[in-house]
Amino acid sequence: MNTRSVSVMLTLMTACGFFLFLSCSGKPEGNGAEAVQAVTITKPEKKKFSRSFDTAAVAMAERSAYINPKVAAIIRSFRVKEGDFVKEGALLAQLDGSDYEIAVNASRAQLAAAEAGVMQAEAAFAKISADFERFKALKQNGSISASDFEQMEAGYKQTEAGLAAAKAQRGMAQSALDGNLRQLGYTALIAPFTGYIATRNGEIGEMAAPASPRPMFEIVQSDTLKIQVFISELEMRGVTKDTVAKVFFDAYPDKEASAKVNLINSKVDPMTKSVKVELVMENRDHFFKPGMTVRVRFTLPEKEYLVVPRNAVFTRDNEAGIVYVKDADDRVFTKEIFMGGAVEGYTIVEKGLDGAEDIVVGGGRRLEEGQKVRVVTPGTAVAGEVRK
């Protein structure tokens, strides 16, 4: 037998031995044909936890406003710059109001003419009123004819209508003056509340207009900061308007602040399954700035929960999961549970278990519905399993 024949024979013998090993290792335990899987089990436990969870957000000013002119006019002067602190009612910028001053003067002249018209109409009405009263008395005495009285009555009514028209004209002139004065007043841009100038746009001599895409000013009030977060409905339990959370700013990792829940939305977002929660925090020294990125940490009150090890649960979605439960005949079946989040290596079970079940925690990923199992203690070496 040559060297090549020996090599081929050894290769065939090695292959036969390998397949024999595979066939032997694949035999089920016991004398029957049914495979038995070695598993470790545990029971659900009741544990008390003080749960914490973090969520990211952005700090916002308590109040903020974009300020644009209400009239079109050339910018005459700025009275503030970015970063300035201003009080409510302070003048921020002055626009050229010469065109509006001309309109105001014209309206004042029209109002004066209307006032004169009312005075004339009132004098005429006073005179004809006295004559009308005298004619009524003469008619009752039979001293004048009916046609003379009717003529006097028609003049009286005409004069009365003229007075009403004069007063209406005066009212319109007054309204026009008020409108033009208001337009003139709009040429002064005023701070609506006390705060800081965050942005300022425009240049002196430039035309400012109400429809400008860039607001002339942005003013923010940051004595108090607002923080809006979106919390999963599964984590909302225990969050109330009395909840105080810790706030960590990315810009100042060594700083820690507190924020109190101010608002909890009454509706769960159907797309994200989360609830909007707004918190407020004091910032009277203005150390923290609106727009900073923050991390909010909620710590919920200690509570007792029914839990199972996290590695015993096969998740379907954020709420539902599957566990394998061993019955008295040492067979396993799946059972659906509804989860309430996770903490310290455990999954909180809201519904689905009563606490007496034998739950598979080792070997579950290779199980089938109704499969026979053999319980081993944690730490026992089982082929194909991770040592527990």
Which structural traits does this protein have?
388 residues, alpha+beta, conserved putative lor/sdh protein from methanococcus maripaludis s2 fold, Elongation Factor Tu (Ef-tu), domain 3, Helix Hairpins, 9-stranded mixed beta sheet, 6-stranded antiparallel beta barrel, disordered N terminus
Helix content: 25-40%
- SSE series: HEEEEEEHHEEEEEEEEEEEEEEE
Terminal Cα span? 53 Å
Which oligomerization state do the chains in this entry correspond to?
single chain
CATH class of the largest domain: Mainly Beta
Largest sheet: 9 strands, mixed
Supply the number of structural domains: 3
Q: In DSSP terms, counting alpha (H) and pi (I) runs of 4 or more, how many helices?
A: 3
Would you tell me the structural class of the helices and strands? alpha+beta
Poorly predicted residue ranges:
1-30, 381-388
Mean pLDDT: 87
Question: Overall 3D geometry?
Answer: elongated
Beta-strand content estimate: 35-45%
Please give the number of β-strands: 21
Radius of gyration from the alpha-carbon trace, in angstroms = 44 Å
